[in-house]
Design brief:
The chain has 232 residues and is α+β, with helices and mostly antiparallel strands. The chain is built from seven helices and eleven strands. The strands form two sheets. Strands 1, 6, 7, 8, 9, 10 and 11 form a seven-stranded antiparallel β-sheet that branches. Strands 2-5-3-4 form a four-stranded antiparallel β-sheet, covered by helices on one side. The chain binds adenosine-5'-diphosphate (ADP) and magnesium ion. Adenosine-5'-diphosphate binds next to strand 3 and strand 4.
């Protein structure tokens, strides 16, 4: 019951840590929606990319040596125009020289996304159980609440929905106290697609996270806003 468009794996995957953009290209090859984005290595190229994407945009410093970008000031949200974008590009380039000397790869210009809820979707390859899929609430909540669920890949849609329903915070997705329901179907679809990716990568997969996946209101879909992966 592999969903249409889930794969094949792109050719030429390399071992080691992937950049956010590379990790998102990998999940996009399995039909998971990702932010529109372009990698830029000059302020002019960043401005051209932002004009094509449409303001406001987000700018992120890129280095595969960096794990938590926002902790280092490398994520600049809601840039409203070209002058804000160019200033952010220069700041991010200087920061990268400090935190990852010689290992900066430019800056990622991406659309500013919105969501009702932020999920984390993760995968690891367990030596005994093979590829495992994890889901929980993203952002700070994931570490505070430890409200996560695991299941072996590949997942059916029923498996994926059951994982979401077992979360303590499930009522938040279903819609509480006048808050709109989030697009649970889009979360289920992303989990199933990620599970086929993990299944196909098998032992080449060290880890792969989408954190966050933004869920919009019911019927409006989801989008992967950040991605991280390490292959062997
Ligand atoms: P980190 O490496 O720190 O996890 P992220 O790319 O996840 O960096 O960015 C940190 C936070 O900024 C995200 O959790 C999300 O809330 C917000 N964010 C990042 N990219 C976007 C975007 N394109 N649109 C809207 N919000 C974003
Ligand atoms: Mg993140």
């Amino acid at each position: 019951q592999r969903p249409a468009g889930a794969g094949p794996l792109p050719a030429g995957l390399r071992a080691g840590p992937l950049t956010e953009h590379e990790a998102k290209c990998l999940v996009a090859a399995y039909g998971i929606p990702v932010t529109r984005e372009h990698l830029a290595t000059s302020a002019d190229a960043a401005a051209a990319a932002a004009a094509e994407i449409g303001y406001p945009v987000v700018l992120k410093g890129v280095s595969r040596a960096v794990v938590h970008k926002s902790d280092l000031g490398l994520v600049r949200l809601g840039l409203a125009d070209a002058s804000a974008l160019r200033a952010a590009f220069d700041e991010v380039r200087l920061l990268l020289e400090q935190v990852a000397p010689g290992a900066g790869e430019g800056a990622l210009v991406q659309e500013m996304a919105r969501g009702e809820a932020e999920l984390i979707l993760g995968t690891t390859c367990d030596p005994d159980f093979g590829p495992m899929i994890m889901v929980g609430f993203g952002g700070v909540l994931v570490e505070v609440l430890k409200d996560v669920q695991f299941a072996p890949a590949p997942l059916s849609a029923e498996d994926a929905e059951a994982m979401l329903r077992r979360l303590a915070l499930w009522p938040v997705l279903a819609g509480v106290r006048g808050r709109p329901a989030a697009d649970v179907a889009a979360a289920v679809d992303a989990l199933v697609r990620l599970s086929w990716l993990a299944h196909d990568l098998g032992e080449r997969l060290v880890e792969l996270d989408i954190n966050p996946l933004f869920l919009r209101a019911a019927g409006q879909g989801a989008v992967a806003v950040d991605g991280r992966a390490t292959l062997r």
